[in-house]
Amino acid sequence: MNKEDQTAWPAGLSFADMQQSKAERLSDRVYENLFHAIVSGMIPTGTRLPSENALAGEFDVSRPVLREALDKLRIEGLIYSVRGSGNYVQNASIDETQVSDPSDDADREAMERVGEFLNGLELRLIVEPQAAYLAAMRRGPRDLERMRAALDRYDEALATNAILHYHDYAFHEAIATATGNPRIVETLKSLEYDVSRSVNLMRLLVKYQPLVRAEIVKEEHREIYRHIEAGAANRAKRAMRRHIEHARMRTMNGTPTI
């Protein structure tokens, strides 16, 4: 690839603020965040990824861990390697003409993932509005602080074009934690952006405006938080239900989001 054909690494894009969960394999966390950035268009097609040393430093992982994540992205066709040059992002979307034949194995898998994703949203419609209700009734100062921190990190990541995925989920997890019910927290964790099992689904749904989407999600989160902070349980419940319903509508319109 000629240098003039390369797409520049997006200005301000940073993974440094991504907190690692000890319960997760580090390579999975690296993979999921790079995957999300690629399929959402945050890292454009043709971009050369930073060196392995640089990326390992961004994620605070070893090079073997990073390579495992990169290998997975390479197998899935999201990046490719050029000897002596590095790793490049390639088109993550599927040509619409390629999904017309339901007999194709990849297309059938994609449709199954759509069903799984929508089933997950349906379960969230049952669980999360009630979680918001209970959080408004039971939240303490530490719970509110945790929610505010997640909202602030989301805002900071949005302003710097960093990855939003983790901070989005962290807000929902903080609400679940505020219920004081560990089973609700466990249920929500089981639904946390199963990115690694939804590759083809996300490829089908990448045609959307991530920054517009992110701003909308930001406002919806802020509304939910205001009601929880005020102890307005019924309003918090309704706001959360609207948020999940909007997520489902955005998904059906090709605009996936939490």
The helix fraction, in percent, is 55-70%
Whole-number tally of structural domains: 2
Report how far the terminal alpha carbons are from each other: 36 Å
CATH 2nd-level architecture of the largest domain = Up-down Bundle
- How confident overall, as mean pLDDT? 78
Number of continuous helical runs = 10
Keywords:
single chain; 258 residues; mainly alpha; Arc Repressor Mutant, subunit A; Four Helix Bundle (Hemerythrin (Met), subunit A); 2 domains; two-stranded antiparallel ribbon; 10 helices; 3% strand
Write the layout of secondary structure elements.
Blueprint: H1 26-39, H2 52-59, H3 63-75, E1 79-82, E2 86-89, H4 105-138, H5 141-159, H6 165-178, H7 182-190, H8 199-204, H9 210-230, H10 233-252
Antiparallel strand pairs: 1-2
Helix pairs in contact: 1-3, 2-3, 4-6, 4-9, 4-10, 5-6, 5-9, 6-7, 9-10
Can you describe this structure?
With about 260 residues, the chain is mainly alpha-helical. It has two domains: about 10-90, Winged helix-like DNA-binding domain superfamily/Winged helix DNA-binding domain (Arc Repressor Mutant, subunit A, Orthogonal Bundle), CATH 1.10.10; about 100-250, Four Helix Bundle (Hemerythrin (Met), subunit A). Helices cover about 60% and strands about 5% of the residues. The chain contains ten helices and two strands, in the order αααββααααααα. It has helices spanning about 25-40, 50-60, 65-75, 105-140, 140-160, 165-180, 180-190, 200-205, 210-230, 235-250; strands at about 80, 85-90. The protein has a two-stranded antiparallel sheet with strand order 1-2. α4 packs antiparallel against α10 and α5 (about 140-160) runs antiparallel to α6 (about 165-180). The radius of gyration is 19 Å and the shape is elongated. The two termini are about 35 Å apart. The model is unreliable at about 15-25 and about 95-100 (pLDDT under 50).
